[in-house]
Amino acid sequence: LAAFQTCVTERREVLLGPYLCGWRGLIRFLHSLGAIFSFVTKDAVAKVQIMEGYCRGERREEYASLQSMVEYELANGLVDVQKRSGRPDSGCRTVLRLHRALRWLQLFLEGLRTGREDSRTSVICTDSYNASLATYHPWVVRKAATVAFCTLPPRNTFLEIMNVGTAEEAVAMLGEALPYICDVYGITQELFAQHKLLDLP
Length: 201
Description:
Elements: H1 16-32, H2 38-56, H3 66-75, H4 91-114, H5 121-130, H6 139-149, H7 155-161, H8 167-194
Helix pairs in contact: 1-2, 2-4, 4-5, 4-8, 7-8
């Protein structure tokens, strides 16, 4: 999660290198929690790979930051605004999918951090999912996800599974990391809203 600390420049630009590195960390974290989150991690891995391809490609300088990517792709007609074409997914569409998943993780981790000791992880996870990602998933995925969430252990057990020490140490770590994730999310949300990119097909 530490990579998100280095994402934002003094000019409030989101650097894509550290952003993708942060996502790699989140994917490792979710993998460590078991197969229950595979419906998110599989998609996130695919999206991160697409973006890493852009960041290493021949136009890599255009993909240094989120802002430069949006400017470049919109100026060159690379974003399918109305409906999907046969072209490869744009960076804007790909980041939007990661952005939506980041919102769910942000809500879920914040719920874990602020929850009571006897809070049910399944309820925190389901509420976070319903307030974010569920909107974009078909009914069958939503149903499978919420059923899977019911198998999550209690909050304190879950915090210890996170492998950062005791439940209290996990809460402290989340308290340090979450403001950076929130900041990245907020900048991305504002940028995509400004350019009407929040509902890309």
